[in-house]
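Researcher: Quick sanity check before group meeting.
Model: Go ahead. Protein one:
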Amino acid sequence: MRAGDRDNAAYASACVAELLIGRGELDEAEELLISARRVLRSSDFAVFALFAEIQLARCSLDRGDAETARRALEAVVAEATRVGYAAITLEAGTYLARALAREGAPQDGLEAVAAAVAAAGSDAALYGAAIERARAVCLVALGRRDEALVALEKALASALEQGLLYEQLLIRRARVELTDPGRVQPEELREIERLAQLLGIPS
């Protein structure tokens, strides 16, 4: 900001906001994102404006407002697809699937993931963990618990391969939620606690 580079400063703010969302600090994240989106939309950083809009949709989703999240993410997917931003299309598609599942349309969520993966092409391999976790959310909503657990296993394998600690935490938490309490392994709970402490996220 001191150097006058408002565009990159705004993108950095959006990245900080993404981390704040992971910590559950939604008010702080939204304040940064609203300002960042305004700057990025007025510049040549359109792809980063879409990134900021995805994060704002995440805030809505985490607050339980699936409808607002779904509308925002549908707009992001449409714009990103139109201009060929494959990675943004894919990221938005995974969150759109979760929003649809929460709205009671999990089958549409699975279709949203499939469409995003198809649009992303080879880039989809980089988002394997997020893709499978989104599929798991939809499968759970459809009552297909065993298939959801298989999707989570695939997600965890991808997250471990890429060293994605935050994804590992989310996947392990989801897996515990789907497992009968008496069958949850103590090692899994210890790993969840370790990851949460490492990432500074309440366990």
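Researcher: Fine. The other one?
Model: Protein two, sequence then structure:
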Amino acid sequence: MIENILSASELAAKAASDTTTYKAMEVAHAWVEDLYDQLMESVRIYRDKIDQDEFCVVYVIASDPLLPTLRRRKFYCWPYLPAPRPNQGVFLYKKSSDRLSRLWILPIAESMAELTTPGFVVDKNYELMQAWCKAFFKGNFWQFIRKQHNISMLSQEEFDHLNKADLIEAGLESPNPRVSETFDFSKIQAGQVENAGNILAFQNV
């Protein structure tokens, strides 16, 4: 484990000292190159564990407390609409059609705030992202998503509220996806270490 941490630290330092100028779109394409494969790998793991036809496949981009230049992607599946947050992508998987479709993509917090600044004009390619960000700050995010994609899936908060009495009677509590599990540093590999400057460039495209 220690060797992996040192290796990741050395690679992170090397990336930070890299003076090469990268095109933002090239970084973006590299970052999402295997995204579909990773999403479908999550589907494979959770498909038989979630007893419903439709569920969400989520990925979040997280920083690391010990290696500030390290960025890692975390994938998981969820039976409800997850709470929206910056640096998050959410897709809907349907077992009956074996189809994966995008529900929303949210950028970093600073970009979300900028996109919702009154009078801020965006390129046509970012109008949808701007709409998601506006719904986030207005507090009607899930309603907006359901109308946009013509789905009826509840959020965990809504599900718990509707079934509160039954959950209490059964002595059950819904798991909290916001509690992060301890990161296993032995999982760090060379290909997972990213230059923080490059990531920020991608996120602000």
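Researcher: One line on it for the slide.
Model: Residues 22-31, 177-183, 188-205 have pLDDT under 50 and may be disordered.
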